[in-house]
Amino acid sequence: MVNCLKTASPVHNKMFEFERVHGPEDPQDAVFEEVKPLITSLLDGYNVCIMAYGQTGSGKTHTMLGSGPQEENFKTQKETQQGIIPKAAAELFRLISEKPAESHTVEVSVMEVYNNEVFDLLARDEPGSAAGQHRDVITTSSGTIQVTSLTHLPVCNASEVMQIISSVLKRRAHCPTLIHPDSSRSHLIVTLTISSKSPNALALARRLQRAKKDMQRKEWWSPRCRRANPTAQHSSDELFASSSSSTCPSPSLSPCPSPRPSISQATFKTKLQLVDLAGSECVGMSGVSGPALWEVSCINRSLSALADVLGALAEHRPHVPYRNSKLTHLLQDAIGGDSKLLLMLCVSPTQRFITESLQSLGLGTRVRQVQKEPRRKSNTLRVK
User: What mean pLDDT is reported for the chain?
Assistant: First the structure.
């Protein structure tokens, strides 16, 4: 079941039921308490997506980034003012610190979907200056979603994550409207990719290392190979390669083959996608004209495509239209399958925005009807 947060209750004699409802007086810590269990799932092998949905000015960026998301404010931002993204990054690295050293590595990427096109905000042009570059979204032969040539930067702590994000926020598309003086015109997607060494592979590596030391000390070799060629003389490294093979050809006069991959490179990857969606709004209320009209049209169409995908999942339709929008195609790994999705509904209490509020609450109701597949840990090893 997908959870929905930050909602309102009775509106125009309609009652909407959600897992949690947070009022404007609730601190950021209270909101993040509902999110924290999902961060643990990342290290258990699940993809996780947390997104904020709502009209312009309803508090999506405040919910995701916190108060004052400017570059100079992140360094001095109090913990109580931090939104979901900095708190999620801090919790992730706290959990990693409790794991064996070097068992997990983290990379960050930052994208925006603007006018139904994907841009890499961390990419740099030929002179080396930062400049968002257009990217394509593809589905690989294995069924996973990949953004071509996407920039991934390694990070070691939450502070590095926020420094990277804050350095590119100014490049996100913005435009003043009658609703908000600095309205975001794009969907911001921050992705943390966690590479985890397989626990089974780590344990196997330790056992093989102990076996190698034992062989070097005792000059021991595989009994099956010894019977095949009792007079053969092998070095300890050859014998180690022989013993690591699961089977040995019989009969044979040669040592057992060693087709094993490098244990240290056996990993599986999970993704935490943190999404600050652009605000939904009607053209008449926003008061925009000219090129900004196309921006509003693209925003509303991509949000409609997101609603269609969630509706198809809720109704168990045989076809889910992920590719109707770059936004839903990009987030397919996080929305479908056995991933975990948390939708934060940000709703304004102002009577003026009642139509947009009802639309947001209606989407939340549809999302609550989504029954995901039984969750399975991602234990596929990617061996180099």
Answer: 75
